[in-house]
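U., I forgot to send this yesterday:
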Amino acid sequence: MRHETLKAIAIPFLLAIKDKMTETYGLSVFDAKHLKNLIIYSIRGPDYTCFSFKDKTATPLHTSAPGKTLVAFLPEKRRTALLRHLTLDRLTPNTITDHKRFEAHLAQIRKDGYATDLAEEISCCHCGGVPILAPDGTPVGALWLSGIDTRLRPKALLAGIRTLQSAARRIEAELARTLAATSRTEPLSPCVVFALKTLSQQLGVPIDYEALARNCHLSYSTLRTVFRKETGTTLGQHHLNLRLREAQRLLTRTALPITDIATRLNFYDQKHFSATFKRKTGLSPLAYRKQVSLA
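Result:
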């Protein structure tokens, strides 16, 4: 999966938990070329002493909590092959440098469902990480939080991890829906390709599904059945998802008023748009715009 796709899926769910997080947190992926944990998105914590990370910051796999998470949940053969090439450099007195001990540590991470970094990478820094798993169980990313050890004591660290686990499950569900619609091994039917193209080109107008079906030389019921079978979603839900993603783009990349965005994307009114947007992302359009600009 492309990192940008995972990032686009994850951001709304990460923004939705901002009020629950007391430290900096974010999203990482596995950098296979450099054998690193790669931060691709982060949200700085509310305190002025909270850590700040730039996108593309790389951290060691064997010390960072998200790095250990990404390794721990790899399929056994891939994990074994990776460990043969992984150097366990000592960064602090708490760093695990013995391979057998590290493998036992990874087994415990798989059992617990999360990883911790207790000053193993940077002294006085604690971190937690949880996996984001694809439908086949392989890790595609990790969520993490990081902060000063005196604030992220075991109870506070575990509370943050639990919040991240809940967000990870929501991201996984959305990821599964996205993959179901894009990862077919068989080509899509011409009628489904036509429908997808039409829906993507008409984000601001109501769709006449009966007319769409006639243009495909099918009955509406047949088109509806074939479309859901091949994409994993309905015509209406797919069109709504396209409109909401365009709304996210307009909210973050333009200064258009929310009422204008609602009108442009053919919602009944601003109230309907706001309710639909919040149900999908966990945030109102205004809150989404503010939090993305602050992240």
